[in-house]
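Example 204, ligand inosinic acid.
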Amino acid sequence: MKLLLATHNEHKRREFERLFERTSADGAMVDALPDSVSMPPEDGETFAANALGKARAAAAATGRVSIADDSGIAAAALGGAPGVRSARYAGEHATDTENLEKLLREVPAGSGLEYVCAIAYVDPAGGTERVFEGRCAGRLAEEPRGERGFGYDPAFVPDDGPPSEEGQPARTMAELSDEQKDAISHRGRAARALLQWLEGGARS
Ligand code: IMP
């Protein structure tokens, strides 16, 4: 089974490719979205609404079964912000680095964070729509560390990450291997819920 992945974000595409490769028992795969298909503005109030908007747009433009994710970070110290506005936290066209720096300025080190991911599934022929959600709890690092991952990963210390070396600070998401991130990440959890549903054959 091949699903169209409605994203132009290379980091997310790579994460989905490896999540599907590792998790799918039936060889389900994701196809990249053609450049010609544009995504709607992410102006919904929830991750689920934004993910559905993107999957519906891709399904309508191509006639194919499509999935899309919408994800972000919620800081307890900011009452859950930036949330659905995580990509635009430091401004409309902010870079990942600008968003990360703003979070480090505005949120106290050690305070609670949560990554959230909603994945929407849209089958335009059968009219089926489903949304799967995954979460990952953590806290803000003292300072950014690590070169892997993307976005807020250098500042995010997952609660259920692998133990750090003796005397070393707990590892950030950007210091974990791909396998370690996928095992605990919001996107990994939501993708496994989607695949379990797809492969359980309950697609109606
Ligand atoms: P969107 O889902 O395209 O709206 O963007 C989500 C925002 O949250 C972007 O700023 C991402 O950098 C950030 N984000 C989402 N998932 C992750 C992740 O796994 N690690 C780090 N940042 C993430």
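Summary: The chain has five helices and six strands.
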